[in-house]
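Please, structure for the following, as tokens.
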Amino acid sequence: MVVGVCEVELYIPNALSLKDKRRYLQGLIKRLRNNFNASVAEIDYKDKWQRAVIGIACIDEKQKEIDIRFSEIISYISREKDLELVDYSIEMF
């Protein structure tokens, strides 16, 4: 069993308040959970309006499958029109 963890830093230029930020993030988190069967949560910058870090976790028997899924997730996030992907990192256990 392999566990993959991806940390994604986001910039949300249109968020003018924490309420705006939550609206953008909750939509993204819900889509990632539904489309990629991954566990997703906001993990940092919870008090910043235009910044966020989300954590994404996947479990599979093969590391290659997790690599493919994370590649698809990063590509999906980078196509979001209201969010900008700043940085990401991936770890396998």
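The first strand starts at residue 2 and ends at 11. The radius of gyration is 13 Å.
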